[in-house]
Amino acid sequence: MPADAFAEGSNLGITLNYDTGITLNRTVRDIASRTLLYPLRYSVRHSIACRSSLMINFRVLATSVAVLCLTLPVVSNASADNGEVNVYTYRETKLIQPLFDAFTKDTGIKVNVVSASSGLEQRIKAEGANSPADVLLTVDIGRIDEAVQAGVTQPIKSELIEKIVPAQYRDPDGHWAGISMRARVIYASKDRVKQDKITYEELADPKWKGKICIRSGQHIYNNALFAAYTAKYGEAKAEEWLRGVKANLAQKPSGGDREAARDVAAGKCDIGIGNTYYWALMMNNDPDKKPWAEATRVILPTFESGGTHVNLSGVLLAKHAPNKANAVKLIEWLAGEKAQQMYADQNYEYPVRAGVAVNPTIAGYGTLNADSLPIAKIAASRKTAATLVDKVGFDN
Ligand SMILES: [Fe+2]
Questions:
Q1: Same structural domain for residues 139 and 174?
Q2: Please, what's the b/e burial string for 82-109 (b: 16 or more CB within 10 A of its CB; e: otherwise)?
Q3: From ligand 1's centre to the CA of 346, what distance in Å?
Q4: What is the DSSP annotation of 271-302?
Q5: Residues 71 and 148 both lie in one domain
Q6: Same domain membership, residue 196 and residue 87
């Protein structure tokens, strides 16, 4: 499975991935029966499962599950930390489970995971004060922002996080922190693109007419890039730029980042826009798509003022975290050297912690000079950028 498969728009729906691999979609009855048999051992899971099942449309089973919820012990969010932490995540479980396993090995704290492709902040909000969520993991500033706007977070309050994570990758109010970074870059045709440098501004230059491939302008990755442009130059210039980029597209925006490389390889366009880790995944982990990477090379673009646009995988502390101390421990552990190296080597992301080496494939792109624009300012321009995409008919 690719990195961030959930974030790529798959509609897998809500899946509960506990250490046992139970999935609610398939086995509500199993969870219920196991909970009956092992009420103490499964109390936390039961608590999550019951609330979750009531959130989604398992109408046939709702009544019986609801009865179980009322009759079996439920972990209160007022309870003291009990050796566990509950993580809601947009990140694919397969990618982050090794991190959680290592955390458990280091600390003895068990990690219960709830994965979904969308709607986690709404779910936490609906669960209210009884939400079992302790930590929310996201893959984009857009989702980070949505969680904060939904009012389901609280300040992390960790001196360690403030020390390790650079200020531009943290919320000024402490509600979120970046754990790893990805840059939005150019997959350039090895055959047809001779220049080694390119600016984001240049993407609107008519010399690229009919030569650019990109996914939907409303996708969260492009929204963040367009928001960064808007934050730098203002709405009017951003609109003008978007019209220029739109005029240069080889085809209607479609697919994902990998497909941009695919279309460059097929000769449909000369440059594609994609995130740094997809190219590495295609080159190293996906033999079927390796030819797409081999036909292209990654250029780290910059704004004319210097700096490459980066986005964050972030972590947030849930407002009513019942295991708050363990949650902060996990957040701090994710910013530690071991976890940061795992992010770098397994997910091909840039660590936020200084001194941790990036993966050699990623290092091969050149030295990343990340844009200094604070992520919080980019987040503040997201809505304007989305409006502009519609206004210029970017996806039409
Ligand atoms: Fe992704």
A1: yes
A2: eebbbbbbbbbbebbbebbeebbeeeeb
A3: 14
A4: EEEEEHHHHHHHHHH-TTTHHHHHTEEEE--B
A5: yes
A6: no
Q: How many domains does the structure of the chain reveal?
A: 2
Alpha carbon of 253 to ligand 1 centroid (Å)? 16
Rounded Cα gap, residues 308 and 303, in angstroms: 7
Contact 368, 350 (CB under 8 A): yes
* CA–centroid distance, residue 126 to ligand 1 (Å): 27
- Per the CB < 8 A criterion, the answer to whether 61 and 88 are in contact is no
Q: What pLDDT digit, counting tens, does each position of 312-342 carry?
A: 999 999 999 999 999 999 999 999 999 999 9
Do residues 340 and 170 make contact, with C-beta atoms less than 8 angstroms apart? no
| Tens-digit pLDDT profile for residues 214-254 | 999 999 999 999 999 999 999 999 999 999 999 999 999 99
**CATH code: domain of residue 17:** 3.40.190.10
Judgement on whether residues 251 and 347 belong to the same structural domain of the protein: no
Segments forming the whole domain that contains residue 212: 183-309+364-391
Ligand 1 centroid to Cα of residue 233, in Å, is 26
CA of 3 to the centre of ligand 1 (A): 6
Q: How far, in Å, from the CA of 139 to the mean position of ligand 1?
A: 7
